[in-house]
Amino acid sequence: MNIDRVVTSAAVDGETRRLSENSSNAWVVGDDHDVIVIDPGNRAEPIIEAIGGRFVTAVICTDGRRERTAAAPDMAHELYAPLLIHPADDELWRETHGDARYMMLHDRQEIAFAGMVLTVLHTPGRTTGSVCLYADAIAAVFTGDTLRGREMMTGRRTRREVPTLAARERLSTLPSTTTVLPGRGEATTVGAVRLRRLSGTGTSDD
Questions:
Q1: What structural domains does the chain harbor?
Q2: N or C terminus: fewer CB in 10 A for the chain?
Q3: In the predicted model, is pLDDT for residue 142 greater than 80?
């Protein structure tokens, strides 16, 4: 199983900020034949290069904000792939994409591809339609902005960076060794972001 990370600068309010301040991870996951694209962000070209001609089973966005979805409709159209987001983010989607169509994700939905399965975990917080995608076969979870990457977890945390109760309940059930592949920053593990915080017993990083 191959997991390719493509880092781009995220477009916010029509501007592209410095990569170090506002970078966004897209993930291309699969084998030599079939892949899924997670969170295409605002640049299709480097992601299509990473795909390298493989069949794209789906393009999935972990939430409906522009910085996660900007390139999604064009990419899905070009690659003849279905585009999936959670319907609770429909309003956010339409603010950027109008009537562009998508297929609906739902909680506990299983998406099979390349000999493995992604399970959708609805984790509202960053947006009401935020989801994480858990791959049991490779012990990894793609979290979008529900959990931040390693270097994003240091220093003072703002309230919006702390997962909501729904996210805590869901993610605290995963093994502590589960790899967290976030929408921003470097990979980490569920254990590294403190299971006691995720389970609601505290919010400090101590």
A1: 2-198 (3.60.15.10)
A2: C
A3: yes
